[in-house]
Structure formats: structure tokens, C-alpha cells
């Protein structure tokens, strides 16, 4: 058996559909575009004969005349659509493609969501035969729109016009713009299109798909599971704008911190109808991914949501484990993100985390452009997996030095003179800027070195102000909290209040675009993130302080008062989920005079009490309490392992500790093993004769696959690699993955901010 390579597996999946994409116009949605950029798929697609690669969400009439493959002279007669979304969500865009390309006779639709997953979702409009149902739906909707607009004179029959060459089509674009605008308005706002999946007869006569006097439009609907975003050959996350990553991982109940995170584990089983859609989609995604990689799994889970995903995976794989003996055996460990909230909230020594935290984000559904310039296979990837993989195990200083080294090598390759001061030492943003300007002196050099240039520009942002000082300030503040947590709860709560009070002096980043005296200081939202970290540390160090909270009633009340005062001081800077419904009062309060301010403050404080929770009700736990309880109980399980003690160990994240313990074959309380099909066979069959199968160990597997439900950060990846190395297991192939790649700001938005899920993407 060969080694596991996620990028190679993804590229091979594209080769498997070469018959569909040869000579076709390829449309990809934003999630698929993320994946294809990271695996370097565009040269392969051109090699396989794709005419053009276009954005599904931002379709244009110009797509019909773009031709990257000059050997094809005739207009395209087929299109291929690859989406990371449910078919019902992508329906309007798919329909728009068919209406726009009137010379197309063949359309192949590929979705990363399996047919069974489509039907498994409670709210899905498609049934057990989802792909066939959607095939019929798409044909019917297409036919209705064509006939409607033929009557209005906006369209002619597909074959009633001579096929035009690209040049002749180009001359008609201005007149066809009017046709497009009419089509776009009529069906995009048609309520029947959105409602059609639940109202139509999907098994109508196939004659519906024929136009009177015209050729038949051939449509196929297929599954394409390998839409992943590899950071390296063995580390990946899901596309941020795909359905699986955007779906809810928890329902709206008291155990939920955020829809984008698994619920706090209670040990209670899920009701069948209460399973979050994100858990269902994740289970189906992992099942097909593992099958595509030719692996068979021994499944383990830690956390309630992971447990239900593991159960679904076991049920789905039960038909195949016995018959497919030739597959490579691997261990799959599913972990709820809420088992360890501290690690992704903290600002650790990871260059990649620091880089990603500094880059701007683009809002969901903003245009994701596909470049229409030709590429060749010898070009370097654009911020692709080859660079990211080398940066995964680098700290902040080492990562910056590595970027500088690559830049110096690129300058040397271009035979450009370098400043004698440009040596491998301390790296500054101004130095990088000067060097990259020299490298991008002309268009040819820019294209040849575009990958390293883009990475250097991102590094320049991370090293510039205020990003650099803000990260360093977080690191210092987190060290102070860690020291305070080793003292007393009073010391820790006092330090948290100091951070909140100090933040009042700092303008929010939205109000202060000019970095001045506040440079390096932390604003109120930063102080709230530090408060969350403080609560988690309190849960670890003072688990028995009181029955329901890590701090005493007086300490909790003082913390609440500090938060209320900070909100009243700068109400416009507090875009927080727990203040929903109080925005108008806060804005009115900010415009009143001092006397009225007192009355308003009292009202806000009273309302805030309601939002915060009853301080005297022992049965009421707020989200901070839930997070520290789960955090402390999980970490105490591992820190009790005597062999893995020491200061270095205590500073590591839970993933490092968990992996080290499993490799050392320690028992982990709460870790559940989901029997494989072979195991159940022995248990129910030969087990009657004393031939039962022993429970396998996760650490005994040659391939270890860890998936964190809710997301991972690059520091955890670095530490997991260290765990493998320190336990002298060079034979182990480690695959690390998660729902998304998290930064501390992402965690703030998920738990306290206005975002419910991580649907933001890097520009």
C-alpha cells in the first residue's frame, strides 16, 4: 500500500471525470474554487481539455466565448458544473447556466454532497433517489423557462439558429445583454423555482425533456466527494463556502455555544430528529472521503457530536468492511472542538496562525473571480499547499525567516542584485516590501514568482502595525492570565477586570483607523476574548471553587459590572450576540446627558442581568460556565497521566496530550470505540465460542486520521507532529483535519460575536 497523499488523491479524482470535462466549459462555485486553488488543479484541467473555468455564482455572457484551449474552434456544446453545495441551494445558478448557453446539448452536474446525504437531511426537498429527482426537476424547470420566454420573444429554439463562431458571437453580446437581463429577473425572482423541489412530480415522462423540433438536452447528476482544501499532503479543512462547513453543528439549546461549534457534551444520546445537519453531512463526507482514499476505519470518538458522527459512520460502513479486505487499515479519531476551546482562543507560537489572523476577510457571496489567463504546470502555486506545508511546523520567527529565504532565492534566480544588508536575520515589513518590489519589476517576473510574492505580501501585513503589536499584546496578556490562574481565583478575576477596564481607553478598530498612542493595546472585544480564556483557565485550576462557577458570587458580579461599564462607555463598539435586542437602548444612552445617563445605565444594567442570567439560580449556567466545565473535565483526564507530566506538557494543547497518551496506549476516559463490521461479526458470531475480538488501540494503527468537528488551528497541527516525533513513531502516517481553519478572532466571532458560522474567506 502506498502512502496517503491528499493532493494526489484530489487530482486523481479530477482525472476520473476527464471524459466529462474534455471540451467543456467548467463552472465551479466558491467552495470548489478554494479547493482547486490549493491543490493546483487548473493546469491539470487545461491539460484534460477544459475550454474555460468560470465562476458559477458570477456567470457572464462572456463565458460563452472564452476559450483557453485554442485547438477547439467550434462553440461549446457541453458544460460541467461542480458545486460544494446541496443541489437545491445551487439550483438557481445551474439553471442560469443552462439558459445562458443555448448551444449546449450536454450538462454534467457534480456535487460534493452524496445522494444519501441529500435525502438524510430533514429539511431537504429531495428524497431517497435524490439525483434522479433533481435530474427531472432541472429538466422541467429549464423547459418551462424556455417555453415562457419563447412566447415572449426573448428566446428562439436551440437549433433554430446557426451555430455561431466565437468571433461572430462576440459581435452580438451587446444585443444579448438585454435578453439576459430579462431572463435573469424573471426566473431569479420566481417563487416556483425555489419551491419546486417539494411540489413537482419528479418521475414525469421523459418526453418532457424534449423541445418541440429541437435536440434533447442531456443532463447527468453525479457525486464528486474530493472537494477539500489541503494545507499539505496530510492536512486539510473543508471549503469555507461549502454546505458541510456552513451547516449547524449544534441546535439552539442551553448546551450550544454557537451553531458553528458542537454542543457542550452532556453524555445524553441525541434524538434522531435532533441531530444537527452539520453532523449528518460531516459523517457522509468522511465516509466517502475514506472510501475514495481506499482506507477502512477503526472509529473512535470524544464528545457527544463526534459520538453520533462515529455511530453514523459505523452504520454506513457495516456493509463493506468484511468484503473489502484489501483496503489499508486506519484509525479515525473524531473530537468535538468544545472539548478544547482554550487552544484555538490563544495566540500561540505559530507563524501560519499569525499570518492568517492578520489577513483581511471577504464577506460571504462576494465575487470570487476565476482568472482567465493561461497557466502552465511549471508555475509555482498561488499561496498553495507546497508553501503552506513548509510553514506548518514553524514558529513566528522561523516562519518569517523562511519567507525571507525564499524571497532571496527568487531574487537570485532572477539574477537581481540584492542589498548587502539583506541577510537572514531579523525580518521587517519594510525590508520585505523593498525586496518584493524588485522581484515584481516586470510582468514576466511577476507571473513566474507570483506564489512567493503573494506570500511575502501577506507576511508584510502580519509584521506591520497594528497587527504585530496586537498579537504580541495578546501573547503577553495570556501569559499574565496563566500566571494568575496558578495563584487564586481572586487574583485571576482581578486581572480579567483590569483588562476590561484598560480596554475602555482604547478605541475600537472600526472607530480608529489611525494607529497612534493606542498601538499595541487591546480593545473591548479583545478583552472579552481574554475573559473567555480566563474563565477556561479558572475551570482548569479552580474546579471546586463553587458548585456552578469557577469564581465566587462577588467575583462574578464584579466582572459583570466591569463589562456593563465598558459597554456603556462605547456602545457602538460592542457588536455582541448577547446584546441582541439592546442596541437601540445603547444608542439612545450614548446621546443622553449625564443625569439621564444614570437612569439609562440602570435600565441597561437591569436588562443586561436578564441576558447574563440569574445570579442566584443554581440551575442556570451561562455559556462561559458551560465552556469551562467541559474544558476542565476533559483536560483533567489527561493531566492525571503521570508519565506525561511536566511544565512543557502542561503548556501543550489537548490534541498533543491526547495523541501522546494514545500512542503510549493509555486509557482515555470518555473515548468511545465504535465497533467495525468485523468486530461486530466476531462479537455476535464466533464470540459465542470464546473467540471474541479484542478492542483495537488507536495508537496501533499505521495510519492515524484525526478530524476535529468545529475546526482546528495550525498550532495544533504543529504540536501533533511533535507528538508523533517524540513518541518515536516514524512509521505512522498522520492525517489531520477539521471543519475549518480557526484563528482566535474566529473563536471570538463564534462564541461572542455576531457570526454564527465560519463563512468568511480569505481574500
Automatic annotation (TrEMBL):
The family this protein is said to belong to: Belongs to the STXBP/unc-18/SEC1 family.
Domain of life: Eukaryota
Ranges of Acidic residues composition bias in the record: 608-622
Disordered: region residues: 608-633
Stretch forming the signal peptide: none
GO terms (BP aspect): vesicle-mediated transport
The protein's name: Sec1 family domain-containing protein MIP3
Coiled coil: none
